Amino acid sequence: MNSGEDAIGRRIGAAIGGGFAATDDGGVSTGSPVLQTRGLARSFTQGSETIHVLRGVDLSIAPGEIVALLGPSGSGKSTMLQAIGLLEGGFEGSIRIAGEEAARLDARGRTAVRRDQLGFVYQFHHLLADFNAIENVILPQLVHGAERPAAEARATTLLTVLGLGHRLTHRPSQLSGGEQQRVAVARALANRPALILADEPTGNLDEHTADVVLAEFLRLVREEGSAALVATHNERLAKRMDRIVRLHEGQLQ
Q1: Which of 27, 131, 208, 220 has a beta carbon 3.0–4.6 Å from 135's, enabling a disulfide?
Q2: C-alpha 103 chain-centroid distance
Q3: pLDDT tens across 61-99, in order?
C-alpha cells in the first residue's frame, strides 16, 4: 500500500472509530415479502388537536420488486419511510423487514436491521464532505464488516457502472448534483441490502438529470436484485417502476 492509500485507510478507520462489529448477512426466503406492514399508524399532537398522518397502512413488497409510493408533498410519504426504515419511534402496527418483526427488536436489533437489510437514498445526497466518492461507498461496507480490498473493489464496480469511474477520487463539492446522487445510490447498494428506501431521490435535480439518474438507479437495483420503495410526487417517474401505490389521507390506494 502506498502512502496515499495508507492515509485514506487511517481517515476511514478514524471515521469508523472501531465501534461496529461485523455480522452475518441475513437472507430472505424465496417468495417471502421483503417488507410487510400491517396497520401502520402514526399521529402527532399539536395543542388539543391530534393529526393522523398514517391510518393503518398495509403494504407488502416482494423480493426484487420496485414500488413507487406516490403522493403530494405533505401526504406522509417521508413519515412512512421513516417508520419502515426504523428511524423514528411512536408508530403503531406491524413492520416486518426480511422476516424480522420490528416491534420485537431493541435498539441494537433495529440498528442491525438498518445496517444489514436496508439501504437509504434521500432527496439530498448526505455524502460525507471530507471523503471522496469511493471512500463514501467504502465506509458503510467497513462498518458492515467487509475487508478493505473487497470494499474498495465493490465501490469501484458500483461507481463505474454508474458512470463515475473517472471521478472516484473527487469529493462531493467537486461533483455535480447528478454525480453526487449517483454516489448516494452506490452507497445505498454497497452492502447488497434486501430493501432500498428512496425518498424523492431525484427531487433536487433538473428534469433531464432526474431522468438519467432514475434510469441508472432502477437498472442497478434490478441488476443487484434488491427491492425498493421509492417515494415521489412525480407520476411520470412513478410509471417507470413495477407498481404504484398512492398515499391519500393516511391510507394506501
Answers
A1: 131
A2: 21
A3: 999 999 999 988 878 888 899 999 998 878 889 999 998
Q: Are 192 and 224 in contact (CB under 8 A)?
A: yes
Say how far apart CA 9 and CA 134 lie, in whole Å. Answer: 12
Task: Using alpha carbons, list the distances in angstroms from residue 107 to 104, 113, 185, 197.
Answer: 10, 10, 26, 20
The length of the chain in residues reads 253
Q: In one letter, which amino acid is 75?
A: S
Model's pTM, two decimal places? 0.82
What is the dihedral sign for C-alpha 77, 78, 79, 81? Answer: positive
- Does residue 56 surpass a pLDDT of 80? yes
Tens of pLDDT along 136-185?
Answer: 999 999 998 999 999 999 999 999 988 899 999 999 999 998 899 889 99
DSSP notation for 4-63:
HHHHHHHHHHHHHTT-----PPPP--TTS-SEEEEEEEEEEEETTEEEEEEEEEEEEE-T
